[in-house]
Each structure stands twice: as C-alpha cells, then as structure tokens.
Amino acid sequence: MIKRRKLGVFALTIALIGSVTFMTGCDHNGKQEDSKKKIESSEEPDKKEDTKYDLKETVVTIDGKAILMKEMMYYIYQSEQQGNYYDSLFASFEDANESFWDTEFEEGKSNREALKEETMSGCILYEIFQNKAKAEGYVLTEDEKESAVSDAKELYASLTEKQKSIMGLSVKDITKIQKKVLLGNKYYEKIMKGIKIDEDAVRKTVDKEAYRQYDVDYIYIPTVNYDEEYNPVSMSKKEKQEAYDKIKALLPKAIKGREFDDLIGDDEEQLESGSISFIKDDNIYGEAFEEAALELKKGEVADKVIEGDDGYYIIKMVNDNSAESYESEVENAINNAKNEAFEKQFEKIKKDHEIEINSSVWDNLTLGKITYDEEAQQNLQN
C-alpha cells in the first residue's frame, strides 16, 4: 500500500496561483525551454470566442467589484493543472481504484470539492490582498512588472488552441491578473512573517519512531519481463533459476564488504545496484524485502538472496536510524501549523469585506474538466 498524505489544498492553491508558469515546459532553472521562440509566437490572433461558458457572467462580487468568469478561468486553470498532475500520478499507483479528483480529501469531501473551494478562496484572497497592498504603499518593481509580462506570454504560449478558446484570456488579461497576484503576494508574505509558531511544541507532536527511516543499498536482478504495453510477464523457471544463480554468486563478496557498485560490470545488462530509503510498512519493494532489511543492523548485509515481488535482491543496511523522514515530517507539520494560523486570520479579514458568490454560476461548475484538453493532459504526463 502506497502511503499518501492528505493534500494541503489552501496552501497549495496559494503557492500554485503565485507561480503562473506552473508546468508550462520549464527547465531546472525555472525558465521555459525555447522561451524566446514561444514568446515570439504567443501573441493571440483575433478570433471569435468559442466556449460553452459565458465569460461575461459574474462569478463573485468583492466589495462591489465583479469578478467575471473570464478572470476566474485563470484561477480554475491553475488549480486544474495541479489536480490533473496529481491525477496522472494516481494513475500509476497499483492500488489506485479511483482518480485523484474523486479521492476523499476529508470526511464527506473529495479533492475535487476541496480544490474548488480553495480556487474561489484564492481568487477572493488576491482581490482583497491586492487592494490592501496598494493601501499600504506596496508597489511592483520594474523587474516584477517585466516578469508578469513574460510569464503571461509563456503561459499563453503553453495553452492549446482548445484551452485558449475555452478560457478566452489574452496575454494582456493574464498579465493584469499576474500583476494582481504578485502585488497580493506582498501582503500575503507580510501576514505570514507575522505568524509565530511554537516549533518545539509542533515537533513534539510528530512521532519520531513512526518516521524512523532506513537507508538500504541493494543489488537487483529481475524475475519478470515486460510486454509492449509494459505489462509484467513472469520468467520461466529456468530463467528465474539462472537469475538467482547469477546474483547469488555476488553474495559472498558483498558480505565481505565490497561496494555494491563495484560488483557490477559496466557492460552488465541484467544486474543493477541502487539505494532506497523507507519507513516501516512502506513495503515499496514488497514485504519480504522490508522484513529482511529490518532484521539488519547498520553496516550488515543479508546472508541470503531476498526474493521480492519482481526480482531477487542482495541488501545492505546503510543506516537503520536516519532522521531524514522525521525532519521532513516536522517541517510539514510546522508549515501546516502556519497555514492553519493564516487561514484563521484570513477568515477574520474576509468578515470586513462584502463578498457575494454567484451560486447559480459557481455551483454548476465541475472542477477537473473545465479547461481540460486531452492534448494538454498528454503533455502533462510526458
């Protein structure tokens, strides 16, 4: 069973909307590949809008200002990009019986419903926070203004023709919204800096033993092949025996302390070495693998070949008490505490503003398919 943490939707939405270029073909520096070419071609042609949504309908009114469906499409698109990305990951889980969208976020509420709520919250937040930022004298720098323009062009260039038609947003429209987001983020950051959390108290809420991490080196040889559609096909008894004999021949040298990488030749095609980290009951590589690993102390090598779900293993316990997963979970808990404190503060802020959601429009929208395009989803999965 793959463990899945509940999605922190509100914090996710804020971070997501604050980054307009999410999943638009970025390299490791956060800059879009071939961006010059894409930006040059990003100016939208004059064409008639073709969408089943009335982009001129009011979705929500905030302090007398109407936010139209056209602007809301920006927030919907960002949320759907994230949701569809998670959905593509869910599809790879062997034990996934439903999509990310329909998986329960909390009792009585799906991820789809939770993310829709926070899409609206994000829209409301940036409208209010932009105005508060202006009132307190915050302004965008010239670099930030230029970033808003270039990011808007990149986002527009990443949209399929179908998405452009559905959303009806131009580069100019996206730029305006992105400037609102950037300015609103300045006020958001001000609030977050003022939130104080007792980190020591939060740390005590995380069970260190439950997140005790085990770091393991392994040598592996497969006992399955894969067909053209990547479905596993078991090897014959003869092939499995040959695989077992091949990896077992390395066991004495491994026990004597030879580095696992050194035991495998450069031209070896079957055997492979690697490292994994897990916490108890993850069962990433199967129960037999985990049970054998948990019997080892730091530095020990299992005295026999372990048969996993899809191959044979030689395993070595590198560290039987790593704090990495624990520290990661503590960081998550601290961030969650800060986000919860922010949400409470934001709820108080909203009470000072007139907010009216047009339920006849908003309630009829199903998040997940509004800006969906199969072509875009395939690009996301690739």
Explain the layout of strands and helices:
Layout: H1 9-17, H2 35-40, E1 58-62, E2 65-68, H3 69-90, E3 104-106, E4 109-110, H4 111-135, H5 142-158, H6 161-167, H7 171-194, H8 199-204, E5 213-222, E6 224-226, E7 232-234, H9 237-248, H10 251-255, E8 272-279, H11 287-294, E9 306-307, E10 311-322, H12 324-350, E11 355-357, H13 359-362, H14 374-381
Antiparallel strand pairs: 1-2, 1-11, 3-4, 5-8, 5-10, 6-7, 9-10
Q: What would you note in describing this structure?
A:
The protein has about 375 residues and is α+β, with helices and mostly antiparallel strands. It folds into two domains: about 10-200 and about 325-380, no CATH class; about 215-320, Roll (Chitinase A, domain 3), CATH 3.10.50. The protein has helices at about 10-15, 35-40, 70-90, 110-135, 140-160, 160-165, 170-195, 200-205, 235-250, 250-255, 285-295, 325-350, 360, 375-380, and strands at about 60, 65-70, 105, 110, 215-220, 225, 230-235, 270-280, 305, 310-320, 355. Strands 8-5-10-9 form a four-stranded antiparallel sheet. Strands 2-1-11 form a three-stranded antiparallel sheet. Strands 3-4 form a two-stranded antiparallel sheet. Strand 6 and strand 7 (about 230-235) form a beta hairpin. The protein is elongated and about 75 Å long. The model is unreliable at about 1-10 and about 20-50 (pLDDT under 50). GO terms for molecular function: peptidyl-prolyl cis-trans isomerase activity. Pfam families: Rotamase_3. It comes from Velocimicrobium porci. This is PpiC domain-containing protein. Keywords: Isomerase, Rotamase, Signal.
